[in-house]
Write a structure and sequence with these properties.
Elements lengths: L2 H29 L10 H11 L6 E5 L6 E3 L4 E5 H5 L3 H18 L3 H30 L2 H38 L8 H36 L2
Organism: Piscibacillus halophilus
Keywords: Membrane, Transmembrane, Transmembrane helix
Protein name: Zn-dependent protease
Length: 226
């Protein structure tokens, strides 16, 4: 890899995630100030959608942090950050519905969600071990260690890639549920979609960066074996 290509590569690795994070934060901050037409808080939205889908074993709780919203499948809990839990904004409604989308996926045993859950242990191990194994292999000139490190990294990358359909599907479910439950009107559809699309960018950026890193080390491994 030439110096110019090398600099472009690392610029993409640095800039893409920062751009995605900036996009989601700016979009979120814009629509967290705009009330939704139903006047429902994020917690109200989450509970209504859960009830309308016949899901009664999932709790909705408040959690600390900025955009720390998530669904915990082990404890069957939708956790919403304080603003989204209490406020009646379009952003709060969108994010609450998205997290409930994951709860609906869980209830319906959505295949990609199950696959992602199964990948968690090996993906976590891969994230923690791959760079150490690859670095040790490069320093020692041991291509076997590099190869093992690449295999570990591949599982972590696979986890990132499988996350994409899970997140996009949850967002699609969120839009359908927000409309069918009467939380938003058709005129609010484009703005709600902007919030969900911006959030999805962070997952796309993470997957692209992870895939680029994997390709780089695979090429390095092939070069070592020439």
């Amino acid at each position: 890899m030439g110096m110019g290509s090398f600099l472009i590569y690392f610029a993409i690795l640095l800039i893409l995630p920062l751009w995605a994070q900036s996009k989601v934060k700016n979009t979120y901050k814009k629509y967290m100030k705009v009330p939704n037409s139903s006047g429902m808080s994020g917690a109200d939205v989450a509970r209504r959608i859960l009830q309308e889908n016949g899901i009664y074993d999932v709790r909705v709780e408040e959690t600390k942090g900025f955009l720390s919203d998530h669904y915990d499948p082990r404890k069957k809990v939708v956790r919403l950050s304080s603003h989204n839990y209490h406020q009646h904004s379009k952003a709060a409604a969108a994010i609450a519905a998205h997290e409930v989308g994951h709860a609906i996926q869980d209830a319906e045993e959505y295949a990609f969600l199950r696959f992602r859950h199964a990948l968690v242990p090996v993906a976590s191990l891969g994230s923690n071990m791959s760079f150490f194994l690859i670095l040790a292999g490069i320093i020692l000139g041991a291509t076997g260690l590099v190869g093992i490190g690449i295999v570990f990294m591949a599982f972590a990358v696979l986890f990132q890639l499988v996350t994409l359909p899970v997140e996009f599907n949850a967002s699609n479910r969120a839009m359908d549920q927000l409309v069918s439950s009467g939380v938003i009107t058709s005129s609010e559809h484009p703005e709600t979609k902007k919030v969900l699309n911006a959030a999805a960018l962070t997952y796309v950026a993470a997957a692209v960066v992870a895939l680029m890193e994997l390709v780089r080390f695979v090429l390095m491994f092939l070069h070592m074996n020439e």
